[in-house]
Design a protein that fits this description.
The chain has 248 residues and is α/β, with parallel strands linked by helices. It has a single domain, classed as Decaprenyl diphosphate synthase-like (Undecaprenyl pyrophosphate synthetase). Helices cover 46% and strands 15% of the residues. It has a six-stranded parallel sheet with strand order 3-4-2-1-5-6, sandwiched between helices. α2 crosses α3, α3 runs parallel beside α4 and α4 runs parallel beside α5. It starts with a helix and ends with a helix. The structure holds 3-methylbut-3-enyl trihydrogen diphosphate (IPE) (2 copies) and magnesium ion. One 3-methylbut-3-enyl trihydrogen diphosphate binds next to α2.
């Protein structure tokens, strides 16, 4: 069956968030080093970004490195940072060709300077693109992001630029890293883990979740289309009744 052709073009999620998990297990299955799995995972990233452009997904957020991932063995952290630099440098021409704009969320200042420079260069070079916005979550965790937002709001209170009554969901959103992006309608996690691992806790409040056993390096276009088809089969009620939704 042609999965891509089965997708309803009028019901494409505007924003999809992905927890790219299972690189290490994928590599181990072939008797290879975990790092080999991370390298292969980059090929999945390329395919999924391309698929977004083809079917009209405007925003794609990829969880690439969590604040908790700093606790991995140093060799793995170093290899991931190197992979980040080389992938960004290699892929930027491809992003430009595909009309992809790069953005980042997370504690970017905690990344090695070479990563920060490479990221900024790619962000600048892709800034005019508007087909797809690719958001990399790097040294990201939702608790870090929300804590940071609370600090910014507390500073405004201290300065007297706002009062307690001005604190609304909107003000909180305006102080999150994701302030320029709509909330994801769909969150995908690969590798069979059914958890959220400190990812976009606020922004996923009403997202549809799709969990698959497929490991990230095996998650290619057809797997992505399956996730979108699953999303399209769901009724999003936002607290209303099914009858209210179908009468609209
Ligand atoms: C996801 O794959 C990539 C990162 C977290 C950087 P993992 O490295 O977590 O792979 P598994 O879960 O150990 O298989
Ligand atoms: C979540 O994957 C973070 C990323 C995909 C970058 P992990 O593999 O680190 O998550 P846990 O720790 O198993 O939940
Ligand atoms: Mg994992």
């Amino acid at each position: 069956m042609d999965l891509k052709a089965s997708i309803d073009k009028n019901n494409i999620p505007k924003h999809i968030a992905v927890i790219m998990d299972g690189n290490g297990r994928w590599a181990k299955k072939q008797g290879e080093d975990r790092i080999f799995g991370h390298h292969e995972g980059v090929n999945s990233v390329r395919e999924i970004v391309e698929a977004c452009g083809e079917i009209g997904v405007k925003y794609l957020t990829l969880y690439a490195f969590s604040t908790e991932n700093w606790n991995r063995p140093k060799e793995e952290v170093d290899a991931l940072m190197e992979l980040l630099v080389s992938s960004i440098s290699m892929e930027t021409p491809n992003l430009i060709e595909k009309g992809v704009r790069l953005k980042v969320i997370g504690d970017i200042a905690s990344l090695p300077p070479s990563c920060q420079t490479e990221l900024q260069e790619s962000i600048d070079r892709t800034a005019v693109n508007d087909r797809v916005t690719l958001i990399l979550a790097l040294s990201y965790s939702s608790k870090w992001e929300i804590t940071d937002a609370v600090k910014k709001i507390a500073a405004m209170l201290e300065k007297g630029t706002i009062n307690a009554k001005d604190i609304t969901p909107r003000l909180i959103e305006e102080n999150l890293n994701t302030k320029d992006f709509p909330d994801p309608e769909l969150m995908i996690r690969t590798s069979g883990e059914n958890r959220i691992s400190n990812f976009l806790l606020w922004q996923l409040a009403y997202a549809e979740f799709y969990f698959t056993d497929v490991l990230w390096p095996d998650f290619r276009k057809n797997e992505f289309y399956k996730a979108i088809l699953s999303y399209q089969g769901r009724e999003r009620r936002f607290g209303k009744t099914s009858e209210q939704i179908s009468s609209n």
